[in-house]
Amino acid sequence: MDNITIKGLTFEPYISHEEIAKQTERVAAEVKRDCATESPIFVCVLKGAFMFAADFFRAINMPKSEIAFIRYKSYSGTESTGEMNKILGLNDDIEGREVFIIEDIVDTGLTAHALRSDIEAMNPKSVKMVTLLYKPESLKIGKVPEYVGFEIPPKFIIGYGLDLDEQVRGLRDIYALKKDE
Ligand code: 5GP
Questions:
Q1: Which of 58, 64, 158, 170 lies 20 to 30 Å from 1, alpha-carbon distance?
Q2: What is the DSSP letter of 64?
Q3: With b meaning 16 or more CB within 10 Å and e meaning fewer, what string describes 50-89?
Q4: At the top level of CATH, which class does the domain 4-177 belong to?
Q5: Tens digit of pLDDT for each residue in 61-96?
Q6: How far is the CA of 11 from the centre of ligand 1 (A)?
Q7: Domain map of the chain by residue range?
Q8: Alpha-carbon gap, residue 119 to 93, rounded angstroms
Q9: Of 107, 118, 173, 180, which residue is the catalytic one?
């Protein structure tokens, strides 16, 4: 795989689609094993998690499970703004349900923390976090996610749903910003 340049920044190949697929299968198997009910609801956090959520939902293969979508926004360019705006709320009834939040990446933990509080306020049976990527060194608030595809250092990454100002979400592999950029 080659480096790619976007908006004047150079990104190098970081995680291949084969590795993503392998860890997605592993995480889906772990979640399935731990499910207390046959019909959990998976809440995909738009936009970044849409690709992971689709592959995870296929991999877990639970016919009575459901998928829902929610949208928050905290990033601008390559930095977290630190402010949470809920853009698209959850209309599904989740009271008494087993809920798994599906995230692309947990960075400062702000989004995950806000999501958990909002969902917990809706009285579900339980709430757990499934994230493809987790930056442990960047976590400032909230819990460590229960299910993690990859633990990574605090790099800025793109591809497989993750954007740079709304672009490059369609890349099938994950790329990291080169250190000297
Ligand atoms: P947090 O609230 O944990 O700081 O950040 C969560 C959200 O910020 C993620 O859902 C994702 O949309 C965005 N984000 C965090 N780190 C990265 C990154 O390395 N690359 C991209 N493209 N988005 C990120």
A1: 58
A2: T
A3: bbbbebbbebbebeebeeebbebebbeeeebeeeeeeeee
A4: alpha beta
A5: 999 999 999 887 655 556 655 556 665 567 778 899
A6: 16
A7: 4-177
A8: 11
A9: 107
